[in-house]
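User: Some background: our group keeps a shared notebook of sequences we're curious about, and every so often someone picks one and asks for a predicted structure to add to the entry. Today it's my turn. The entry only has the sequence so far, pasted here. Could you supply the structure so I can complete it?
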Amino acid sequence: MNDHLQGSARVLKSVGNVLLVGLLALALQVMPAAAAPFAYVTNVYSSNVSVIATATNTVVATIPLESLPQCSPSFFPGCVPFGVAITPDGAFAYVTNAADGTVSVIATATNTVVATIPIGVGVSPIGVAIMPDGAFAYVTGSGNVFVIATATNAVVATIPIFPVGSQPYGVAITPDGAFAYVAVGTFSGGSVTNGLVEVIATATNTVVATIGVGVSPTQVAITPAAKPGNKCPLTQGFWQNHPKAWPVTSLTLGSQTYTQAQLLTILTTTARGDVSLILADQLIATKLNIAHGSNPATVSTTITDADNLLSQFGTNRLPYNVRTSSAIGQQMVNDANVLDRYNNGDLTPNCTP
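Assistant: Of course. Here's the predicted structure to add to the notebook entry:
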């Protein structure tokens, strides 16, 4: 067994990972309603997954992994199932197999393994988290974060974690799907020396921030998004002229985080045909409105698209000098127009002043 797996075993060898999953209507059609929701528990030494019906707190199924062809005995017996995450629709559980460099996909309707995804030779997959839209799974292991497209169950990106030789453990994704937070242990001479959390922008699959924390961090969890309010949105001009009314003092636009002073500079800078500034102005106002209690339902897709457009400029910061005649400029204009309508109340007719 490689050093990363042995280190993981020392830190967490007696810990199973538990994730409660509320099965949605589609899954409830094929599973008894009284038995939902379920908890899926990875058992490292048993090389299997237990399924608990939370209504009765009893184990209703055990899913073996040690009999899978790729699971040969190693330092531990079998696959060493470690991390587990459930797709948002409740249809599949993704289980990392630390000893064999794979991820098993379990269909929750039948509690059977329906796919095995090779991550890499010598890789010890540990943590796993799935995007809120279910499109991608982020898997940590052996100095990297691997991105799996759930539609094809193929690895589509590999994100190196720094410094070289570090071990990523737990991973969690923000409710808006914009960022993945990864707990990283750093080593020197075989000993744990420090701890970091690295922040990955999911639009570009690049590390955009590194945060020093305690020694040997292993897990990370993110609080859920606040329940949408129903306050009427306020215009860009209001937020520009009333900074004391801001509900937050920083915002992320694209993959970059800006302070209130930097955001006010953006709002007061004349666009002069730069559509990146036009979009940023409306995106700032929209995000402030949502933080203030406005319902984002009608513009959530537009916000994601706007952030993705701005993320294409990497670590550079606004303004980006984008002309309206360019293809990306036209996309920015379209998003800015939608957000402008939202900020002026056109898309929230039943809001409360």
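Suggested note for the entry: The chain is about 20% helix and 35% strand. The radius of gyration is 23 Å.
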